[in-house]
Amino acid sequence: MISVGRIQSYLGVTGDSTYLQQVEKASVADVEHLTGRYLGTAKTVSDVLDVPPLPYGLTSAETGLERIQSVRLSQPAASLAALTIYERMAPGYAWSAALAKQVNSVDAFELVGRRLYRVIGTWPVGVRTVRVDYTFGASDDNHPVDFDAVVLDLIAARYRSPQLRSFGSEVQSIAIRGASASFHAGRSGWGIPDDLYKRIIALRDAGSF
């Protein structure tokens, strides 16, 4: 996600390339785990999704809609325009042509985080009846700024405080050089300072969990 050269520049160091790669890999893995966001090289995915029965909501007089359908993407997409959406009656049937995203200049879908809503028309209810093709991820040093910032800060915290790498998942508080601090543990078992943990959790996408 972040090149060694950029990490060295951020930390103001010139060596430790192999070590910094290890710290970067672990830090990215923890941020991915805590946010549910893929931060690797860009790739294309086809999500084949189930459509639940239509939920009934407010009346059409109140909302202009009598019902709304939604599915959840496996990864956040950049925008509604980045999606290509198909449907079919059931597994084994052919996929439709790509669905139009607008009807009479009105959006037929709404994307909120990973949740894709159908607001005009309906999808066929059932197992694996909708397919959404899109690309996610990015090249090194080209991810969203706020994700770059927390990963770089987590790398810096671990590089400057090697003690963090030795703590397991049960650690809640420690003392380093006489100063008390509280830490959460990520999937890798490496401690995450509380302030960074809160910043990472705040990056979860709407509709992701």
Query: What is the number of helices?
Result: 5
The rough form would be described as elongated
Strand order of the largest sheet: 1-8-3
- Radius of gyration over alpha carbons? 22 Å
Sheet having the most strands = 3 strands, antiparallel
Count of structural domains: 2
| Helix content class | 25-40%
Number of strands: 11
Which structural category fits the helices and strands?
A: alpha+beta
Mean pLDDT: 81
In N-to-C order, the SSE pattern is HHEHEEEEEEEHEEEH
What's this, in brief?
The chain contains 5 helices and 11 strands, in the order H-H-E-H-E-E-E-E-E-E-E-H-E-E-E-H. The chain is an alpha+beta fold and 209 residues long. Residues 58-63 and 167-174 have low confidence and may be disordered.
Outline the structure in words.
The chain has 209 residues and is α+β, with helices and mostly antiparallel strands. It folds into two domains: 4-40 and 153-201, no CATH class; 43-136, no CATH class. Helix content is 26%, strand content 26%. The protein has helices spanning 4-11, 17-35, 60-63, 145-160, 194-201; strands spanning 43-51, 69-72, 84-87, 102-103, 106-107, 109-112, 115-118, 126-136, 173-176, 179-185, 191-193. The strands form four sheets. The protein has a three-stranded antiparallel β-sheet with strand order 1-8-3, with no helix packed on it. A three-stranded antiparallel β-sheet has the order 2-7-6, with no helix packed on it. It has a three-stranded antiparallel β-sheet with strand order 9-10-11. Helix 1 crosses helix 2 and helix 2 (17-35) crosses helix 4 (145-160). The longest helix is centred in the N-terminal third of the chain and has 19 residues, at 17-35. The protein is elongated and about 55 Å long.
